[in-house]
Amino acid sequence: MILSMTGFAATSAELPGASLVAELRSVNHRYLDLSIRLSDELRSLEPALREKLSGQLKRGKVELRLGLNRSTPGAASLAVDPGRVAALAAAADDVGRQVPRAAPLSVHEILRWPGVLAEPAVDPETLAARALALVDEALGELAAARAREGAKLAAILSARCQDIAAQVTRVAPRIPAVHAAYTEKLNARLREAGLDPNEDRLKQELAVFATKVDVEEELSRLTTHVAEFRRVLAAGGSAGKRLDFLAQELHREANTLGSKSVDAEVSRAALELKVLIEQMREQVQNLE
Are 11 and 140 in contact, with CB atoms under 8 Å apart? Predict the structure, then answer.
């Protein structure tokens, strides 16, 4: 399966008094570039998260955001710490005996006192385990998104391969006739100039020049590169760099075909090939 480097995933999990949120974003990049942003309570997980991401992702600029959001306790989750209230009441009594005119504590003031309302707490080990599991879930969603995008890119690239093969098939039968017509045209010009085309030295020069404008080798290489491109595409995996190299080779052969062409139809085909190959190169840049 061909994978795109572009994808997004978001997952969340509820904890006592808090919620965990993980977001993964990935775009194309020559290498694997990781950016990890964590809440303060989760910073100790960065080495494990970096190892986890680099173990599953090969290329791309990847950003992970993992946050712990404290939720406001609802009425059903309010819990008063009796020990804290008792200690606060004892302290208030001592102050009352020493300062008889001091105003007594109100219920509002007692509830606002730090520690009176007990907040749900999450064990650090439990928090770490839930966070890592959440990132695993996000990685699964990201892989699915990248696979869907990769399938679309693979279909586009397969279509471009078919278009390139069609251009080669269209011009290949013309090459012998083009070669013969061009040779006859050169012979006619030599005769007009008063030279004998059958002279040995001129025949050698014509043969050398005819070889220089022969494009059968370029067409053959284009066919070979397209076949290899299709094979790599079908094999799947992290094929982006290999396909990028093959696209460069295809572009090189199309350029050579255009520069050696002595026929308008072949020149048009070379131009069309370069357009198709450039479209391929743009899509390949997004593959892992």
Answer: no
Q: What is the pTM of this model?
A: 0.69
Q: How far is CA 168 from CA 109, 164, 226, in A?
A: 86, 6, 10
In this structure, the number of other CB atoms found within 10 A of the CB of residue 244 comes to: 15
Which of 105-119, 159-173, 257-271 shows the lowest per-residue confidence on average (mean pLDDT)? Answer: 105-119
Q: How wide is the angle at C-alpha 42 spanned by C-alphas 36 and 48, nearest 5°?
A: 60
Largest Cα–Cα distance in the chain?
134
User: Alpha helix (H) ranges present in 73-194?
Assistant: 82-98, 107-112, 124-171, 175-192
Q: What percent of the chain has pLDDT over 70?
A: 81
**DSSP H or E stretch at residue 210:** helix 200-212
Give the Cα separation of 208 and 55 in Å (integer). 56
Write the burial class of residue 173 (CB in 10 Å: 0-12 exposed, 13-18 middle, 19+ buried). exposed
- Residue 114: pLDDT over 70: yes
